Amino acid sequence: MPDRLVVLYRGNRPPATALIERLADTVYATEEELPYLLPGADALLAWVTITPAIREAWPDNPDKAPRWVHAASAGVDSFLFPALVEDPGVVLTNARGVYDQPTAEYVLGLILALAKDFPGTWEHQQRREWRPRPSDSITGRTALVWGTGPIGRAVARLLRAAGMLVRGAGRTARAVDPDFGMIHGPTTLPSALAEADYVVLAAPLTQDTRGMVDASVLAAMKPGARLINVGRGGLVDEQALVDHLAAGRLAGAALDVFGQEPLPTRSPLWDMPGVMISPHTAGETTSEREALIEVFLDNLTRHIEGRPLRNVVDKRRGYVVDMTHPA
Length: 327
Hints:
This protein has helices at residues 17-23, 34-37, 53-57, 82-85, 100-116, 118-126, 150-161, 189-195, 215-220, 238-246, 288-305; strands at 5-8, 26-29, 43-46, 68-71, 91-93, 142-146, 165-169, 174-177, 181-184, 198-201, 226-229, 252-255, 275-277. The protein is of the alpha/beta class. It folds into two domains: 5-98 and 286-305, Rossmann fold, CATH 3.40.50; 100-277, NAD(P)-binding Rossmann-like Domain (Rossmann fold). It has an eight-stranded mixed sheet, with helices on both faces. A five-stranded parallel sheet has the order 2-1-3-4-5, with no helix packed on it.
């Protein structure tokens, strides 16, 4: 049994607390309480993941830092601070696999909503206006999925099933890939952007990917294309996106994540034509909490028994390396 497991929560505690408490000496901490309860803990379950609290509460003495940190999320950018990354004795795991299919479904829904202009239909309904108009078809359209991890692959499979031509973009080019058909690397990325009707961002936020969609990338996109971001807000230069949307180079965007969340009310993105905004909910489902705790409980059992943990993050890269499809 771990000496002590700290569960970081906000609002509601995770499900299955009775089972967690039977397996480990468990204490619960809010973000304010974490600096007092984290030092000396053996493990940390971060039920809250988008927060500076873990970095701020991390013990200065490495001997007092937890040896295992589990993030109840797919993204781990909040955990990639030097003290955690550079300590070889700290293992970081995540909830890889939980969000793949829900996010893929959400992306397909966003593409259909943009192509069929569902927001416009809803506005006309609210005004009781009968306004027939044609809509775009997604069959045969090209989607470039930027990010070839499990979420990107789930997106690619679903978009292909819907009749779209799908390509991937990642660190390593591949001429043949089972999910993407082919994957573009940095050299052929500009030509891939120029051909894509939809560019879907599903990459993790790391030092290498922060700000990767800048003015030059947006300028390389096909005129009239649409950008969808279900990765992290920090992937995109938001001001450059606003400028390209305002200039009419892009037909629109569907954004689920932002550099600052909640998105400030003063952001021009709220009112821009062709832009859909959602509050970081692409992967959320009614069964999300149960799926997240199932992954954690499996790893907690493995931790107690001394077996290898699932979903171990490569802290230098910022994501779990899939040796079947290494990025």
